[in-house]
């Protein structure tokens, strides 16, 4: 099969990825599904793994964790052992593989319902091969049922961009009818904006790039400005999607009293020194967002099934995955890129 590998992490302009055309199709282990990849979203986290901001945990790992696939084989015990395949996947089903691949289910975090904080957690496309390939495996207990009404290409970004944006929205503690600022407006933000708008929020978008700004207007943003601009009114909540630590300061300064800024990414460049009175006083909060639980994912996917989200996608053939990552880094498209084998 064809599969991309992170051969030498470094700038994506220097071709750190290698395309193999002779990989063996993986065998599903006990409790795993073998998926034939139908579509795989291109996430900024893939860029961080490829460039080495997040050093790969598996040598030559295949990136990709927004995977829509067809179940083509079941590993041993996948149907018979309790809890191994809780959603009852069978051959021929369509299934989603997301960033969270495995947790130990025994640590204090798992036992209290915050498995996203499990210290032994493993991730698709970082600890194990992901979806920049024609086939991949996923533990059945961590695969997702997918809502109807979407194409395979539209579903792919929901599996990380959508899920993480939804979890970040929860972390931002947006009050009913509140004022939300979104810093950066790519694959995740354009979905989170629609969820917030459906909940009655006023959304202000602060981002670079004319395409992203135009998409924000089309989706119903109350205002659109540059990434470091001040919104026209104080914000109750804000989410930083851009991995730019410098933007933490203007985002905090834009918060009203008691406001919360959630950082949505797994990677962020260094944050400059804060001024306590200007950025944090009056009970402003700064919070991180770490992965998501399966419950978060399934709640969001159910919501996406009830409210048809407009998912902006740009298809690339699998063989052009390296170009898709270069275009992502350069901001050459709005919405999300999706690889199609």
Short description:
By secondary structure, the chain is of the alpha/beta class. α6 links the parallel β13 and β14.
Structural features, described:
The chain is α/β, with parallel strands linked by helices and 341 residues long. The chain is built from nine helices and 17 strands. Strands 3, 4, 5, 8, 9, 16 and 17 form a seven-stranded mixed sheet that branches. It starts with a strand and ends with a strand. The model has no long low-confidence stretch (mean pLDDT 96).
Jot down its keywords.
341 residues; alpha/beta; 7-stranded mixed sheet; 6-stranded parallel sheet; 25% helix
Secondary-structure blueprint:
Layout: E1 3-6, E2 17-20, E3 32-42, H1 44-51, E4 67-74, E5 94-97, E6 100-102, H2 108-111, E7 122-123, E8 135-139, E9 143-144, H3 152-171, E10 179-183, H4 189-198, E11 202-206, H5 210-219, E12 223-225, E13 235-240, H6 248-253, E14 255-263, H7 276-280, E15 285-288, H8 294-306, E16 313-317, H9 321-330, E17 336-340
Parallel strand pairs: 10-11, 10-13, 11-12, 13-14, 14-15, 16-17
Antiparallel strand pairs: 1-2, 3-4, 3-8, 3-17, 4-5, 5-9, 6-7
Helix pairs in contact: 3-4, 3-8
Q: Using DSSP, what is the number of strands?
A: 17
Instruction: Work out the helicity level.
Output: 25-40%
Overall mean pLDDT stands at 96
Q: What can be said about the biggest beta sheet?
A: 7 strands, mixed
Please report the distance between the alpha carbons of the first and last residues.
Answer: 10 Å
Low-pLDDT residue spans: none
* Rg estimate, integer Å: 19 Å
Order of helices and strands: EEEHEEEHEEEHEHEHEEHEHEHEHE
User: Structural class of the helix and strand makeup?
Assistant: alpha/beta
- Percent strand equals 15-25%
User: In DSSP terms, counting alpha (H) and pi (I) runs of 4 or more, how many helices?
Assistant: 9
What gross morphology would you assign? globular
């Amino acid at each position: 099969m064809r599969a991309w590998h992170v051969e030498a992490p470094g700038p994506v302009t220097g071709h750190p990825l290698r395309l193999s055309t002779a990989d063996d199709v993986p065998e599903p282990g006990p409790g795993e599904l073998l998926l034939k990849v139908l579509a795989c979203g291109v996430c900024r986290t893939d860029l961080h793994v490829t460039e080495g901001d997040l050093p790969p945990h598996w040598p030559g790992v295949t990136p990709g964790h927004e995977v829509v696939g067809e179940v083509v084989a079941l590993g041993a015990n996948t149907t018979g052992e309790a809890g191994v395949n809780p959603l009852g996947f069978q051959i021929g089903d369509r299934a989603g593989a997301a960033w969270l691949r495995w947790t130990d289910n025994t640590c204090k975090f798992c036992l209290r319902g915050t498995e996203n904080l499990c210290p032994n957690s493993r991730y698709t496309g970082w600890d194990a091969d992901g979806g920049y390939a024609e086939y991949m495996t996923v533990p059945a207990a961590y695969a997702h049922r997918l809502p109807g009404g979407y194409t395979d290409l539209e579903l792919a970004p929901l599996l990380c961009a959508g899920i993480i944006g939804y979890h970040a929205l929860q972390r931002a503690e947006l009050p009913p009818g509140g004022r939300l600022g979104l810093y950066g407006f790519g694959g995740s933000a354009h979905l989170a904006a629609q969820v917030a708008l459906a909940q009655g929020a006023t959304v202000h978008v602060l981002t670079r790039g004319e395409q992203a700004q135009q998409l924000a207007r089309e989706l119903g943003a109350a205002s659109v400005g540059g990434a470091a601009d001040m919104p026209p009114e104080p914000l109750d909540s804000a989410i930083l999607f851009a991995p730019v630590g410098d933007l933490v300061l203007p985002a905090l300064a834009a918060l009203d009293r008691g406001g919360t800024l959630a950082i949505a990414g797994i990677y962020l460049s260094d944050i400059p020194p804060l001024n306590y009175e200007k950025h944090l006083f009056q009970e402003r909060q700064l919070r991180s967002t770490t992965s998501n639980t399966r419950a978060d994912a399934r709640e969001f996917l159910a919501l996406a099934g009830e409210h048809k989200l407009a998912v902006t996608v740009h298809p690339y053939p699998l063989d052009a995955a390296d170009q898709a990552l270069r275009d992502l880094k350069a901001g050459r498209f709005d919405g999300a890129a999706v690889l199609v084998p």
